[in-house]
Amino acid sequence: MAKIALLIGISEYKPGLAQLPKAEKDVEAMREV
User: Fold this and answer.
1) CB neighbours of 29 closer than 8 A, spacing ≥ 6?
2) What is the C-alpha separation between 2 and 24, in angstroms, rounded?
3) Rg of the chain's alpha carbons, rounded to an integer?
4) What is the pTM of this model?
5) Less packed terminus of the chain by CB within 10 Å, N or C?
6) What's the pLDDT score for residue 15?
């Protein structure tokens, strides 16, 4: 049985919201799991 996941890394948000600068790299790391 195949295991599939949708990984989304959003690092840029509207002004006033905290940015997540490492979100894209975190998604890339999870891709290897």
Assistant:
1) none
2) 24
3) 12
4) 0.56
5) N
6) 92
Q: How many residues does the chain have?
A: 33
Which token pair is 10? 């959003």
CA distance between the termini of the chain? 16
Q: Any idea which residue has 């490492």 for tokens?
A: 22
| Residue among 1, 2, 23, 4 at smallest CA distance from 12 | 23
Token couple for 3: 């295991």
Cβ atoms 27, 33 nearer than 8 A: no
| Interval 1-33: pLDDT, tens | 888 889 888 888 899 998 888 888 898 888 887
